[in-house]
Known about the structure:
The complex is a heterodimer of chains A (560) and B (458).
Chain A: H1 2-69, H2 74-87, E1 91-98, E2 102-105, H3 113-121, H4 123-126, E3 149-156, E4 159-169, E5 172-178, H5 180-193, E6 196-197, E7 217-222, E8 228-230, E9 247-250, E10 254-263, H6 276-282, H7 285-351, H8 358-390, E11 398-401, H9 402-412, E12 418-419, E13 427-430, H10 432-449, E14 456-461, E15 467-472, H11 507-517, E16 521-526, E17 532-538, H12 550-556
Chain B: H1 2-23, E1 31-37, E2 41-43, E3 48-58, E4 69-76, H2 84-99, E5 105-111, E6 115-123, H3 126-137, H4 147-159, E7 167-174, H5 185-196, E8 200-207, H6 213-222, E9 227-230, H7 236-248, E10 250-261, E11 265-270, E12 275-277, E13 280-289, E14 293-302, E15 310-321, E16 328-340, H8 343-348, H9 352-375, H10 379-399, H11 401-406, H12 408-427, H13 434-448
Parallel strand pairs in B: 2-16, 4-5, 4-7, 7-8, 8-9
Antiparallel strand pairs in B: 1-3, 3-14, 5-6, 10-13, 10-15, 11-14, 12-13, 15-16
Helix pairs in contact in B: 2-3, 2-7, 5-6, 6-13, 9-10, 9-12, 9-13, 10-12
Amino acid sequence: MTRFLRIYLxxxxxxxxxxxxxxxxxxRADARARAAELAENRRWRAERTADDLQAxxxxxxxxxxxxxxxxxxxxxxxxxxxxxxxxxxxxxNAFLWREKEGCVWPRRTGATEEExxxxxxxxxLFSGAVPWTPPSTNAAPSDASAPSRGYRPWxxxxxxxxxxxxxxxxxxxxxxxxxxxxxxxxxxxxWLESPYSQRLGLRNTWRRTAxxxxxxxxxxxxxxxxxxLVPPVADPADPTPFDPSAEASLLPLFPDxxxxxxxxxxxxxxxxxxxxxxxxxxLSAPALRLAFGGVLFGLLLLSLVAGGAVLLRAARRExxxxxxxxxxVSNVSHELRTPLTSIRAYxxxxxxxxxxxxxRRRRALDTISAESARLSRLVDTLLDFSRLDRGTRPLSPRxxxxxxxxxxxxxxxxxxxxxxxxxxxVMALADPDAVRQIVLNLLDNAAKYAPGAPPTLExxxxxxxxxxxxxxxxxxxIPPRDARRIxxxxxxxxxxxxxxxxxYGLGLTIARRLALSMxxxxxxxxxSPSGSAFTLTLPPVPPSxxxxxxxxxxxxxxxx
Amino acid sequence: xxxxxxxxxxxxxxxxATVAAQAKSKPSRGVSVAxxxxxxxxxxxxxxxxxxxxxxxxxxxxxxERPAVNLALVLDRSGSMHGDxxxxxxxxxxxxxxxxxxxxxxxxxxxxxRIDVLxxxxxxxxxxxxxxxxxxxxxxxxxxxxxxxxxxxxxxxxRKNLSRNLVNRxxxxxxxxxxxxxxSPEELGHLGAxxxxxxxxxxxxxxxxxxxxxxxxxxAGRSDGNTYFIENSDDLPRIFNxxxxxAFQVAARDVRLSVRFDGAHPVELVxxxxxxxxxxxxxxxxxxxxxxxxxxxxxxxFPIGRDGETxxxxxxxxxxxxxxxxxxxxxxxxxxxxxxxxxxxxxxxxDVHVMVQxxxxxxxxxAQEALRLNAAGDYAGAQRKMALNRxxxxxxxxxYAPLMMAAPEAEAALADEESWNADKWHAxxxxxAPAESKSIGTRAYQVEFQQNTFQEGF
Lengths: 560, 458
């Protein structure tokens, strides 16, 4: 038995465990690969968003450059530049520059303070010390091939300003200084409306509303030192650093700005026990296959274990049954041999005329007679059992009053049980012979196992109809762990041949089968502080119009 | 001799009358403009320079009439506002909201390191106001200070109802150093300069001693708004009221002044910034308040004039938009200048009002320089600046005593300026307390931009 279990464990459970560990290892490796892939994906998204932000700025710049480029002559351009500087919120300063003359407008004298600062800032450009196009990009430094427009981040102090310019005539450049603060203010206000970056592919995706699906990524702009430019930002109480892999610079337009993506940190954004990226269908195909395979394998393993368990249980039952049968045979042999031995011994004594004393002869004959009766009871029981086992003994339950029957049984039982007859007839549907046999058997058991005091027989009607007939004793009772088995075939709690009580473990089995044959139940319950209670619960009389009323039945047709 | 004196007096009288007649602007409902040189008569036969004031005065609004406002309150609720300040700020904001009515739009933004649009732009109907007041009551202090983000959000709310017919005003209240987002006076100034192009004016209120007055002044200055230093939070409701009163008093919006100088050469602007191009001075004002004068001071050089000559030298043209109706308006004025060989006639022609205003503006600019020197540790340099102020005021008083006596308003303003300078003289002589620094800086700004300060009358 235990060896079988050990083999089973070694053969199936251990390999399964190994496989499970291997599977877990694979899953972990995949999760790592997945995390790396997600980080890469986030970085990619950050880069696209950075591009997108620059595209937004470029649209603003280009619209103005287009307008300037389309103007016919210098006075018109100058008027347009004045208007840009005076009224365009996205323009900080505008300028008109000529190759030989330098900055034609604004002039330093009479300029506003802002313009003077602007002229100082961009002095190298306006004086011609620095070319308008960075030297790295132009292939041939001729006027014709020089780009006709450009954007020029210009370092001013610790910051960069952004210049946009267009070549409106040979040697003439119109342009303006972008108001980056206004652009940033726009971003800040937009950010406020939807701080969560979402799928790309659309224009201005950095401000798409994205509250509907996980994962939510928080976009933010930072200067090179990591100070946020645009809220919302990390909770200062939360020191978790931003994932540096999800950062993209806004080169070339805004060298000072970095766009960062980080998973939303607020609790309300959490989508449950799975990371958002898994929920959004981002789980990789191999991982999915692996997980599916794992589930299948698990199911297989489970069915294997379940099947094994069922087989094992059946085998164990068979073995127990066989053991019980062997027990039964030896019990029966023992039981049969004991009276036979007595009969044979006395018969031989009588035959040899070795008992001259008539009293002793008489006793021997009595013994032979008693033992024969016991033998015949044993055989009857065996026959009963085999009939019951095959289901051939017919029972005919009918409505009857149990009170006289109980009284008769109490009178006839050798154990002389205490019995208090109920005040009124107790009607139930029962077979009187079966009831007698069951109760006698129970009383017999009580006398056998609780010899100290006579058992009690109790008859009680049930409130819902029917009745209970109980045999109570004050013996040692049945150990709780055995209580379940007592109705099984061939079970005797003490299987030793040296036991003090007789029987072959069929009494309770027969009793229960008889009870079941007439739709009754036989149950055991322990008594407090000690003792056993066997209760036969009989079904009520069905309310049938043709059936005689119960009271008449009990009075006029008492049971034998 | 006698004849010369009589002649010069006659000449001076004539000249005065001419200037007075010519400088008088056409009557107008929105804004009137006047050109006043600091002396109406200049010395003949030598190059002369004088300060010329171009003053814009908003017409009195008819009784009970006021323009509709589009107001954004941007309130700091950073941790430093904890306690009394946030309570007063709440109170002040609630009182401000209560003063609005159905004509107006209102929005409330609160910020710390995060920005919350407490109330998006909406009409100030009684129900809306009740809801906003309810929300304002829940504002508690926490977090750090994202001024840039707060102002951005407030401006975005204003833009939702941006209209030429409204007074678009953002009121920023903060007590802290901006530590999230752009935080330099220059950057906030750029933002202010951009806002003014959309007719948005940002007024700033610094509470306590922890905020950056330069940043607050730059934002207000570049957007033509007011700035206030509120040392005691008990003053908050009063100042909110005054600021809102200002907004209600807007007589003209998007005011563009251009002054063409013929026969004179504008050299530089003193105080308020503007552009000088081909002899034309152009200055933009976001708004002119009713019955309040805003002015531009131009240091002007005059070519040599002959004794007795009178010639026109400047024509001012101002165009504006009337709030409420959105109708454009214009006004113009011109001025002449006379020349005399008589020193007394020259001196007696002085307009002490202009002189005192000019001196106050120069003082304010020097006070800001003194603050910078002081911050750099150059206490002696700071004191020299303040001493120069005192010396110039002494000369002004000595040179024009009789005229001063005749102009009590100018006299009072000068006296106020003198006592203030005397008061701050010691302050800038050493390490300066934040309260002093803020009060000097804010006052300098208020003088430079002719803010209608309720603390001091001028």
